[in-house]
Amino acid sequence: MEIKASLNYLRIAPRKVRSVIDLIRGKEIKEAEAQLKFISRRAAAPILKLVNSAIANAKNNLNLEKENLFIKEIRVDEGVPNKRWMPVSRGRAHPIMKRTSHIILVLGVKDGVKIKKAQPVKSIEMEKTPKEAPPVTVVSTQKPEKPKYRPLKETKKGKGFIGSIARKIFRRKSM
User: Fold this and answer.
1) For the range 61-66, what are the long-range contacts, defined as Cβ-Cβ under 8 Å and sequence gap of 24 or more?
2) Which helix (H) or strand (E) holds 22?
3) Minimum mean pLDDT among 67-76, 92-101, 142-151: which range?
4) CA dist., res. 108 & res. 72, Å (int)
5) What's the rounded Cα separation, in Å, for the pair 172 and 167?
6) Against a cut of 0.90, is the pTM above it?
């Protein structure tokens, strides 16, 4: 039986991740975890997190214990690189490839270990009791009538040309 877990778009170059992965390939889970905890490479932390995720998959889906597992296969594939540009002299630019990694982890079960599938949880039905009907309220469906047209508003009449200029001048902020 195989337990799979994957990590996509890790922002570390595949070449650097492979140097860490080569140390744990084929080892038991406890050995691999101990190795990853004490490696001072940046790729060690995400790989340890991926191994823990695969262990959780094994416990949750197949009721397997950590002691019965080993790393059967682990590989790093190249992801989509992020393309950037570095400005250089004479107005030119050199390309920079920020590479990403896809890590695929497959755990295997040691020989002689029985695998039981997790049993589905049975749902318990509640006893149905007749509900009391809420009191019915009668709502009238008629809407109040609205007039077809709005009444005209009374317009303010200014004091002619001088009144309008005065309003413009005196509403300004003084400096």
Assistant:
1) 61/3, 61/117, 61/118, 62/1, 62/3, 62/115, 62/116, 62/117, 62/118, 63/115, 63/116, 63/117, 63/118, 64/3, 64/109, 64/113, 64/115, 66/29, 66/30
2) helix 14-24
3) 142-151
4) 5
5) 9
6) no
Examine residue 140 and state whether it is found in any structural domain, yes or no: no
Tell me whether residue 64 is exposed, middle or buried, using C-beta atoms within 10 angstroms of its C-beta: 0 to 12, 13 to 18, 19 or more. buried
Give the 3-state secondary structure of residue 97.
strand
Nearest Cα to Cα of residue 21 among 141, 94, 105, 90: 105
* Over residues 36-40, mean pLDDT: 96
Return the pLDDT at 151: 77
For residue 5, how many other CB atoms are within 10 A of its CB? Answer: 20
Q: In sequence order, what E strands does 93-140 have?
A: 93-98, 101-109
CATH code, domain with 73: 3.90.470.10
The residue among 151, 148, 3 whose CA lies nearest residue 63 is: 3
Looking at per-residue pLDDT, the higher value among 163 and 62 belongs to 62
Residues 88, 90, 91, 95, CA torsion sign: negative
Which residue range(s) make up the domain with 73? 2-109
- Euclidean distance between CA atoms 15 and 99, whole angstroms: 10
Asked if the structure places residue 163 within a domain, the reply is: no
Residue 169 pLDDT > 70, yes or no? yes
Domain count, the chain: 1
Structure token digits, residue 114: 């029985």
